[in-house]
Amino acid sequence: MKKLVATVLGVALVASVATSAPWSKKTSKNNGGKVLNIAVWNDEFPARFEKYYKSKLPAGVKVNFVQTPNQGNAYQNKLDEALLQQNSKPADEKIDIFLVEADYALKYVDTPYTLDVVKDIGLTKADLANQFKYTKDIMTDSKGVLKGVSWQACPAGFIYRRSIAKDVLGTDDPAKVQELLSNWDKFDAVAAKAKAKGYFMLSGFDDAFRVFSDNIKTKWVVGNKIKVDPMIQRWIDMTKTYTDKGYNNKANLWSAESFQGAKKDGKVFGYFGPAWFIDFCLAPNTLDDPAKGNVVGNGSYGDWAFCKGPMGFSWGGTWLCGAAGSDNVDLIKDIMLTLTCDKNTMVRIATEMSDFTNNEPAMREVASSDYKSPFLGGQNHMAVFIDSAASINKNCISMYDQGMTEKIMAAMADYFNGQVTLDQAWNNFYTSITELYPNLSR
Question: What does the pLDDT look like over 182-199, one tens digit per residue?
Answer without folding.
Answer: 999 999 999 999 999 999
